[in-house]
Design brief:
Strand content: 15-25%
Number of helices: 13
CATH superfamily of the largest domain: NAD(P)-binding Rossmann-like Domain
CATH topology of the largest domain: Rossmann fold
Order of helices and strands: EHEHEHEHEHHHEHEEEHEHEHEHEH
Radius of gyration: 21 Å
Length: about 325
């Protein structure tokens, strides 16, 4: 089978697929040229991450396409049910990137707690002339230990984040449609994992209680999950984190809350209008920012590639 990994694929996965007799192409094809490329090259399997979409029009136009794989968790960039109804096998890798995303959220929390995100911007500019001033401004950070983290969406990523936060001494509560109670395994070095209960709260309870709130939910069909009303329910001085999907948070309402001094800060890995997010949003001093790199660790990409390769080999 000819496979197009349009958003990249790890070298180990490519080698595994080649040994199994498949041809792997990693040339990046523009979205508007994708149908022609798939058809002229006889592509049977399309692999994507978040950058490439596989909508109804592409599925209808590419009759040779038998497999569509998403390297990652969310499949909102693929018309999954339509593809499956047309006989195309659609799959993803939900277990491979949880740790990487959780670690990035922890990095944002540590950065925001100690103003690293902003001091890192200012030090190269005025660090040699205003050192004492900057030290005074950024010397009022807080510790994560003892703070309460609320996790909205308690799936694999949410549970992985909980294990890290619990290991740092944070209190953790969760909101999820799944039935509770929740329990998380916390691994400490090579010691047998400790099982720690996590309280399940309603959305309103969680918003009012938590010092940090992290979102791990799919893209919403009805607009933002966190808008002006939800932000107003959060504790004054709280910090919001979104490493889920752009659009889950109303960006304009978030900036308004930051400007009003209600929220202290926010950490964003995902944005509306990717890959061209709002330039003014990116300049806000209250934001810690990464360019949708939650699952982009070397280790996670190798796990994702290996999982994709194994699935393809089993199906092709």
């Amino acid at each position: 089978m000819k496979i197009l990994a349009n958003d990249g694929l790890s070298a180990t996965a490519i080698a595994k697929l080649q040994v199994a007799g498949h041809t792997v192409l990693t040339e990046k094809i523009a979205q508007d040229q994708l149908v022609d490329f798939i058809n002229t090259q006889g592509i049977g399997c399309l692999l994507v991450r978040s950058a490439t979409t596989a909508r109804k029009e592409l599925i209808d136009a590419c009759h040779n396409l038998k497999l569509i794989g998403r390297g990652g968790v969310g499949m909102d960039n693929i018309d999954v049910e339509y593809a499956r109804a047309k006989g195309v096998n659609v799959f993803n890798t939900p277990a491979s990137s949880s740790q990487a995303v959780a670690e990035l959220v922890m990095a944002h929390m540590f950065s925001l707690a100690r103003f690293v995100h902003d001091s890192n911007r200012k030090m190269p500019v005025t660090g040699s002339t205003d050192f004492a001033k900057l030290k005074g401004a950024y010397g009022k950070g807080t510790e994560l230990r003892g703070k309460t983290l609320g996790i909205i969406g308690f799936g694999r990523i949410g549970r992985s984040l909980a294990s890290y936060a619990l290991g740092c001494g944070m209190q953790v509560v969760a909101c999820d449609n799944a039935a509770g109670p929740f329990e998380v395994e916390v691994q400490i070095a090579d010691i047998t994992a400790l099982k720690v209960p996590v309280a399940k709260l309603s959305m309103d309870e969680l918003l009012a209680k938590c010092d940090y709130i992290s979102l791990h939910v799919p893209k919403q069909k009805t607009g933002a999950l966190i808008g002006a009303d939800e932000l107003a329910k959060m504790k004054k001085g709280a910090i919001l984190l979104n490493a889920a999907r752009g659009g889950v948070v109303d960006e304009a309402a978030l900036v308004a809350s930051l400007d009003a001094g209600h929220l202290r800060a926010a950490g964003l890995d995902v944005f509306d209008n990717e890959p061209t997010p709002n330039a003014e949003l990116l300049k806000h001093p209250g934001l810690s920012l990464t360019p949708h790199t939650g699952a982009a660790s070397v280790e996670a990409q190798e796990r994702i590639g290996d999982e994709l390769a194994d699935i393809i080999i089993s199906l092709a």
